[in-house]
Each structure stands twice: as C-alpha cells, then as structure tokens.
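User: structure tokens for this one?
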Amino acid sequence: MASKVLVIGAGGLGSPIIQYLAAAGVGTLGIADFDEIELHNLNRQIIHTENRVGLSKVKSAEIFVKELNHQVTLNGIEEKLNEKNAEEIISQYDVIVDGSDNFSTRYLVNDTCVKLKKTLVYGSILGFSGQTAVFNHNGSKNLRDIFPEPPFDEDMPDCDSLGVLGALPGIIGSMMALQTLKIITDLPVSINQLTLVDTLNWRFQTIDF
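Assistant:
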C-alpha cells in the first residue's frame, strides 16, 4: 500500500501489468498513455472492452481498476512522455514499469530512470517473441548496457503491422507484474539478465550481460 508504481502504456503489456498490480493492492498506481481504444486492440488489451472503443486508454484503465480494487489511488496521465515532462512524471514514483511500444520512449524512460536512480521493469513484444528485464535496480545495469543505441523506429514493425497473438503480451506483462511485486515487497530479483521468450517454439532463455 505504501508503494508508488508508474505503468507506461495501457495497451497489450500494460493491461496485465495494471490488472495484477491493482489486484495486489499497490497503493498508488500511475498510468501514462496518450492513445484511444480501437476495436483491433481488444485481442490483447484485455482491460478494455467494446463499449469503450474511442475512449482514452487511461480513462478505460481507471474504470477497470476502480471496479477491481477501490483502495488503489490512481494517477491518470493522458500525455506522451517526452524530453520535457519525463523527469517530472517519473520522479514521483518508486518503480517504473515500461510497457511502451516504441524505441524512442523506451530509451527516454531508461535514461530518465538512470538519471533519477529509479528501478525500471522493462518488457517488449513482437510477433511470437518477447523479452523482459529489471534495469537500474540498486545500481545494476540498464538498457544501454545491452543495447547501446536504439534502431531507427521507422525501420521496425510494430504489433499492429506485424501482428501478435493476444496471449503473448499476457505472458510478458504478467512476468513484468511479478517482478514489480517482488521489487516492492523486497524479494530477490535477477539483475543484469535479459529473459527471452519464444512462444512459437516454446523456448525460454536468459542472457547475462
């Protein structure tokens, strides 16, 4: 109840993250997203519903959380993170959980967390594959230690163009939520390690870095 967690993105990864953090009773839950719900989102963004198509994802997430656990204090942030607002927003939370879907945001969040000494729970998905890690936890390594520079966003497909089975973000998002709960309850977590999940061939691999 004393913890403050910021979830960046209320889409495919953000949905299970928000669901499990709210169910666990995280005291203050920040949800940052600037997008609106579209019908094609619903196969993987499971906290949203058909009757909320057109509504902002943040408002929809707030409805979900309030119905699930009214004791959670919600901070809805309906804006895109950028160089001007990232520090102000991130500084208010203990743990940052990044469920964003683009490299520019991921690197901005990572660099801001490093600057502010905030623990970052990272995850990404594409096609049948996903990955997750805990970065910058008590001074551990961060995203740039394993991927020094982002690729060009315009060269990279996303879930809307390439497609993704809806259960994949459920798997990765649940792993991210579990890591977050372990962090805020002071349980041990693996650091300097990237977990790779290949659901097509059903292979799980960890890489130390």
